[in-house]
Write a structure and sequence with these properties.
Length: about 300
Amino acid sequence: MSTPGPVTSIEVRGTDTRIAIGPNWYRIAPATGTLSTAQAPGFAAVPSGGLSDGRVASSDGAIARAWLADPTDRYRHGVLGDAIEAGSLVIERRDGRIGVVTAGANAVFEDLLPRIASLDGVDRIVVVKSYLQRGSALAIIDAGSMKIIAETPPIGHAHAWLNPAGIADFDGDGTTDIAFVRQPHVVGLLQLWSWQDRQLRKVAEVPDASNHFIGSKALGMSWTADFDADGHPDLAVPSLDRRSLRLIAFVPKVRDIARIPLPARIATNIGSTGIGRHPGLIAGLEDGRLVIIRE
């Protein structure tokens, strides 16, 4: 799609997708499918002591807000653009109770935005925890006990990271699944973990996937939607080289609904056009172009 300049960022809040082109912000106009000017996306200020480049997560449920805090340089990986990570996570409940969950002296939270998700009908926090010597794990935090209640096994060595890609019942078994890409820069293994009986159980693996590049703060390089109209959510995620976009279904088995070649590597978050019953996807490419993918 023709734009008045290079696309530098795409930000998504709920169903609202906004596009940074040069110094200005735009959205796709639903009525015409063309760009219209928009306000810059507003983000809540990170409270004192929070991670300076982090984001505050919020919801209408039991967890009002959550954010990463206690900046530390004890894990000098720098995959998110600097060597500062979070030593703790702050949870503010709807009832006014505030708690702090620490990563521990041998770990950090290597993330920017805690994800508030309903697991078994209970709002919990999903976040990336990285051990200094064993690399990253996916951690589930309970906002009642203010404790980590489950983790995937760490990848196994330092500076090996994972990035969450989606949270939904992808495989249609009635339980919530969490998808992440293990080592999206060098391995690119998409894994699906099911939340069952307060435990995480791996139920699927898909090679050749990525949802991040080194140094980027764009962690939303994926999209969840029912792309094949079968009533089950599917996942859009780039290939490992980020030169194609894969639409992956997990019902009745793991399969590609489509694999769409791109003219350049994806370099931003993925957003939605919001047009029609099956809205298209948009992404910024490394050469500054905006790509729109429609049914």
